[in-house]
Specification:
CATH class of the largest domain: Alpha Beta
Structural class: alpha/beta
Pfam families: Pyr_redox_3 (PF13738)
Distance between the termini: 36 Å
Number of strands: 19
CATH architecture of the largest domain: 3-Layer(bba) Sandwich
Family: Belongs to the FAD-binding monooxygenase family.
Oligomer: single chain
Number of domains: 2
CATH topology of the largest domain: FAD/NAD(P)-binding domain
Shape: globular
Strand content: 15-25%
Helix content: 10-25%
Radius of gyration: 23 Å
CATH superfamily of the largest domain: FAD/NAD(P)-binding domain
InterPro entries: FAD-bind_Monooxygenase_sf, FAD/NAD-bd_sf
Order of helices and strands: EHHEEEEEEEHEEHHHEEEEEEHEEHE
Length: about 375
């Protein structure tokens, strides 16, 4: 039996985070054989494909299953109210229409609201500034003096992609993170011409990836004092040290915190960028943004043409902004600044409402 459904999308195209994020070097740091549907196969060009290939995979899937006819693009949901009399959800949109449905699913994700640092003068900068997730298409950094604020996953993808173009690059780091190369398991040449064997190989990698993920969380990330954790961390630190030329940089780029304290960075081309003489790592705290650049708390000023904020997302903000209500009580108010849901999916008092990537699930 076909179930009628509608997907409401704020963006001008499908793809979610893979449509919003178009910065140079943007890629998935989860292996493609895990970050894809088991029922929709695809010949990935590499284990960790870039943004364009991941977006193309989503579009191909939507075409294959005829989803486009069910999607309303450039439409923002402004309010969702449960009608107790008719037992339906009333969904209002930015296009001044009201849609009724028996079941409501929030699939807004957690990587859609850019998080800017709370720095005085952030709006005073006279040059170009942007968040990685709102990258202007066609923007050229050639010959510019550039500041990148942040050294997390987005910055680690961005920096190797722009270092060859810029005249000078200042990277402002709040705290260092562990960097280790992505696990690149290539398809054996002996099975590349056999579709059935390739399918079995990818299925094996998919299962292996999930098993290794569970074992890593259980035996490494959650027990920082055991022998295995120390062995893994020592190996990562040694690999990082070998990629960095100077001891001064090693002290700044290699964290003292235990493995699992913050999300790891899966790159093998990030750390060598800091050996480039035109790249300067700044560990001092930013005190303010000025018209011409960035000033740190040691009174040093860095004059730049462009400021790029690689500062991640407000993962809780997307949940708190859910405009869900029943009998005048909003979901946000019922949470009382502490988002929670049964198994991360359903909230008491809001019938037939489901959350994907809900509280305390994938992103905590």
């Amino acid at each position: 039996r076909k179930i009628p459904f509608m997907i409401i999308e704020q963006g001008s195209s499908i793809g979610g985070t893979w449509w919003w994020n178009k910065y140079p070097g943007c890629a998935c740091d989860v292996p493609a054989y895990q970050y894809s549907f088991s029922f929709f196969k695809h010949e990935w060009s590499c284990p960790n494909p870039g943004q364009a290939e991941t977006l193309a995979y989503i579009e191909k899937l939507a075409d294959h299953y005829g989803l486009h006819e069910h999607i309303k693009l450039d439409t923002k949901v402004t309010e969702c109210v449960f009608d107790d009399e008719y037992q339906v959800w009333m969904v209002s949109t930015s296009k001044k229409e009201t849609i009724t449905c028996s079941h409501l699913v929030s699939a807004i994700g957690a990587l859609n609201i850019p998080k800017y640092p709370d720095i005085p003068g952030i709006d005073d900068f006279a040059g170009d500034s942007m968040h990685t997730s709102r990258w202007p298409i066609g923007y050229d950094l050639t010959g510019k003096r550039v500041a990148v604020v942040g050294t997390g996953c987005s910055a680690a993808q961005l920096i190797p992609s722009i270092v060859g173009k810029v005249r000078e690059l200042f990277v402002f780091q709040r705290s260092a993170g562990l960097v280790f190369p992505p696990l690149c398991i290539q398809t054996p040449k002996s099975i590349q011409g056999n579709d059935q064997l390739k399918y079995m190989w990818n299925l094996f990698l998919r299962c292996l990836g999930f098993i290794m993920g569970d074992l890593t969380v259980k035996y490494i990330y959650t027990t920082t004092s055991n022998f295995l954790t120390r062995v893994v961390q020592d190996a990562i630190v040694k690999d990082m040290s070998n990629q960095i030329d100077s001891e001064e940089l090693r002290q700044k780029l290699i964290p003292k915190e235990a493995l699992g304290t913050k999300r790891g960075i899966l790159r093998d081309d990030y750390l060598p960028c800091f050996n480039n003489p035109k790249v300067k790592l700044v560990n001092q705290k930013i005190s303010c943004i000025t018209q011409t650049g960035i000033e740190t708390n040691d009174a040093t000023s860095y004059s730049v043409d462009t400021v790029i904020y690689a500062t991640g997302f407000d993962s809780l903000g997307s949940m708190k902004n859910l405009c869900i209500s029943r009998n005048g009580k909003t979901l946000t108010k019922s949470w009382n600044n502490c988002p929670n849901a049964y198994n991360g999916v359903m909230c008491p008092g809001f019938p037939n409402f489901f959350i994907l990537l809900g509280p305390n699930t994938v992103l905590g």
